Recover the amino acids of this structure.
């Protein structure tokens, strides 16, 4: 029977961390050894009082670290379980998540990483939608991160064989890890069951640092793959456009700005413009001209009616 280590990196998430802790400690694991490690980066918001309350039921350390990836890596070094789960201090496991993941790995010995479905939850823990999880495809993974990090469990020897998280990354650290494991031959399997809730709130890094996320992903893709897939070029262009607050009702200006950002990103990261990006940019511009034409025609008709 596989033993399990759950790792929770933490920094000033005092209003959410107790829900995360409870979601781990209330798991039914059928006699499996369950180790729970909280790696706190020196919180100053009451987190430590909460952790002290659970002394004896979990292991924790609070000290300055070099970021989330460093905290998780410290946990991997300390972990003694056969299986590792990584649960951030604002996310939660659903009932029987750990048991389901372990049973899957026990009955599928060739699988290195198992990932389940997940839900988005709000600040009150209420479900507000499903994470877009997909069956595993290494090619598709390069286009979109369809693994929801708290719903992923991997064997301890995966870290021994393929290394730990890249501590240079601060936003795309999980995505890079899944890509690296996949490209180096780790076996992934999808467990079609909701295992975790990923909490959306204003302080999460992917919201607060959206542009940093896209720059970090593109830099990482360039390093890992040698190029940035077109989809991530488009994602960057859309994020950059949103940051400039260009009015989407200004159809042609919107299309031209989007096209310019995509071309700039393609040249920056891929040192050129692919045929697909060129075709997509042309479509955007044609659509912008069409929308401008129909908008002007509608305004002209309204003026004539008067």
């Amino acid at each position: 029977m596989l033993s399990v280590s759950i790792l929770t990196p933490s920094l000033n998430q005092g209003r959410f961390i107790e829900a995360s802790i409870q979601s781990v400690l209330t798991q039914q694991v059928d006699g499996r050894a369950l180790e729970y490690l909280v790696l706190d980066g020196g919180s100053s918001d009451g987190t430590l009082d909460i952790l002290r309350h659970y002394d004896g039921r979990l292991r924790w350390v609070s000290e300055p670290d070099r970021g989330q990836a460093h905290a998780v890596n410290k946990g991997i070094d300390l972990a003694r379980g056969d299986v590792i789960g990584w649960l951030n201090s604002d996310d939660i496991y659903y009932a029987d998540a750990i048991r389901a993941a372990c049973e899957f790995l026990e009955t599928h010995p060739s699988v290195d990483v198992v990932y389940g479905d997940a839900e988005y939850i709000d600040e009150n823990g209420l479900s507000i939608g499903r994470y877009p999880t997909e069956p595993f495809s290494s090619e598709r993974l390069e286009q979109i991160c369809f693994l929801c990090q708290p719903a992923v469990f991997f064997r301890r020897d995966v870290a021994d064989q393929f290394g730990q998280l890249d501590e240079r990354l601060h936003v795309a650290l999980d995505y890079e890890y899944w890509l690296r494991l996949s490209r180096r031959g780790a076996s992934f399997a999808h467990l079609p069951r909701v295992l975790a809730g990923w909490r959306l709130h204003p302080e999460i890094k992917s919201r607060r640092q959206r542009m940093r996320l896209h720059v970090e992903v593109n830099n990482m893709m360039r390093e890992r793959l040698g190029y940035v897939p077109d989809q991530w070029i488009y994602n960057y262009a859309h994020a950059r456009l949103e940051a400039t607050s260009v009015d989407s009702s200004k159809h042609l200006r919107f299309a031209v700005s989007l096209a310019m950002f995509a071309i700039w990103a393609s040249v920056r990261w891929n040192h050129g413009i692919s045929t697909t990006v060129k075709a997509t940019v042309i479509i955007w511009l044609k659509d912008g001209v069409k929308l401008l034409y129909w908008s002007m025609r509608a305004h002209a008709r309204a003026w004539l009616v008067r």
Summary: The beta strands are 4-10, 34-40, 59-62, 83-86, 92-93, 113-121, 127-130, 152-155, 188-199. The first strand starts at residue 4 and ends at 10.
